[in-house]
Write a structure and sequence with these properties.
The chain contains one helix and ten strands. With 133 residues, it is mostly beta strands. It has one domain: Elongation Factor Tu (Ef-tu), domain 3. Strands 1, 2, 3, 6, 7, 8, 9 and 10 form an eight-stranded antiparallel beta sheet that branches. The protein is elongated. The mean pLDDT is 90.
């Protein structure tokens, strides 16, 4: 799996790539829409109206081993700088490509992996999403 983020007006950054020693796990990918629920006089059931405003979240973790413990902090600082950035995400799994336009990076968390050496670090990303193509 390959996940690339391109901030508006910026260059593509690889956030996860199984082929290059990143371990990528998508934890959540989904959305919802606003639905208006109105009772009707004399009716047994209310009527539902789709009001749009489709959106959701993509949450994934990307982990790898770095040269040393110090480098993990340098890398986290870089990833933390992505907060509030708008752009697009492209997820490629084998022959399937999913493009998420108009995303916003809303969360970056350092995930510690106690089972490995101090040079192993995971980052959990949370992106607000709208359209999926």
């Amino acid at each position: 799996m390959l996940i690339q983020f391109t901030p508006s007006g910026g260059s593509a950054a690889t956030l996860g790539d199984d082929a290059n020693k990143y371990q990528v796990v998508i934890e959540q990918l989904g959305g919802s829409s606003v639905v208006q629920n109105e009772p009707l006089y004399g009716a047994n059931n209310p009527v539902l109206f789709a009001r749009g405003n489709v959106g959701g979240e993509l949450v994934f973790t990307s982990a790898k081993t770095y040269a040393d413990y110090k480098t993990t902090f340098t890398q986290f600082k870089t990833e933390y700088g992505r907060l509030n950035q708008k752009g697009s995400l492209v997820i490629t799994e084998d022959t399937v490509t999913v493009t998420l336009a108009n995303v916003i990076c809303k969360g970056v968390q350092r995930i510690w992996d106690a089972q490995r050496t101090g040079a192993h670090m995971g980052i959990r990303y949370t992106f607000a999403i709208t359209t999926i193509a």
